[in-house]
Amino acid sequence: MKKRLYTALGMVVVLALAFVLKMFVSNYFFDALILGITAVSAYEMTKILAGMGKYNNKYVIMAMPALLMTSSLVSIAFDSQIGLIWSILINIGILAVAFLVTFLVSFLTKKSSINEIKFRKLDNTSLAKFSLRKAFNTLFGMVYPSFLLMFMTFINHIDEMTTSFPKVVEFGGYLSFVVLLFAFLIPSFTDTFAYLTGGLIGGKKLAPKISPNKTISGAVGGTIWCVLLCICTYFILNAIPAFYQVFNATGFAFWQILLISLFGSVIAQGGDLFESLLKRYAGLKDSGRIFPGHGGMLDRCDSYIYVSPYLLLAFGILVLLI
Questions:
Q1: Dihedral sign, CA of 168, 171, 177, 182?
Q2: Which pTM value belongs to this model?
């Protein structure tokens, strides 16, 4: 228990430091944190895929975070010529090229692939079919988690994307701070209070075949507390002049935060269950051991993987509708 608590405190300190450096030094410190999270998660994903029997090109999966981060930052720098939609499409294009490369490498390195087919006892599988499956498995490992987590980079630079969001005025980084803060708080509030509420009340299991410890009471309690605490956070930030200007200029009201946090909490729990499903198929208890008492990076960020693109969309729509 102490080990788990100390690890959690360490993660909070690192995250708090990243926010401080973002606000007072440079956004790129937070980009570095995002890249680190994504890189470790991608590595753990290769192990999960291997445990599931989904043969893949782990080197392509592990290279994807750096490629997508570079592409995202370049796209953000040229936002006036590209825009957010094209930036996302460029990243999708990188995934498509990586998929094609994975297929061709597997298909053209005939001897190596045939040996792998024999090793995996897939004698009835043709070289083309084997290569295609390997490419699709690799694509899955690139999308989840690298492509989805990279939306956090766009959130980190949302203040700079004045072409994509023409109604955004210069907020000095406070808008991206707010969106990033909720991107981390929504899953954290949900996970923490789902655990506490479920442990206190107990009751019927939410998905016993996927995650035996999760209860319906915990899921409901986690969402309710998440919404309440996000609204409290909104009012606390709203009392600070710099953040008040952001909320006032963008038209963010507490009822919008209520809806965003409500759906965000549900999405966060869905992301948690999805990762648990993958681990169950892979026969793994944890995705890794990087965090003593907590498991791997994917175990800690599974809820953020889907919340990041959701929040960029949600806040982006609100900004566009000012």
A1: negative
A2: 0.91
Q: Report the 10 Å Cβ neighbour count for 58.
A: 17
User: Residue 125 carries which DSSP code?
Assistant: S
Give the number of other Cβ atoms within 10 Å of residue 65's Cβ.
25
Question: Please, which pLDDT band fits residue 322 given cuts at 50, 70 and 90?
Answer: low
Q: 């993660």: which residue's tokens? A: 11
Spatial contact of 150 and 72, defined as CB atoms under 8 Å apart: yes
- Give the pLDDT band of residue 11 (cuts 50, 70, 90): confident
Quick check: 41 and 297 in contact, CB under 8 A?
A: yes
Distance CA 273, CA 267 (A): 10
The pair of three-digit structure tokens given for residue 106, joined into one six-digit string: 């597997």
> Are the beta carbons of 247 and 237 closer than 8 angstroms?
yes
- Dihedral over Cα of 301, 303, 306, 307: its sign: negative
Q: Collapse the DSSP code of 227 into the 3-class scheme (helix H, G, I; strand E, B; otherwise coil) and give the result.
A: helix
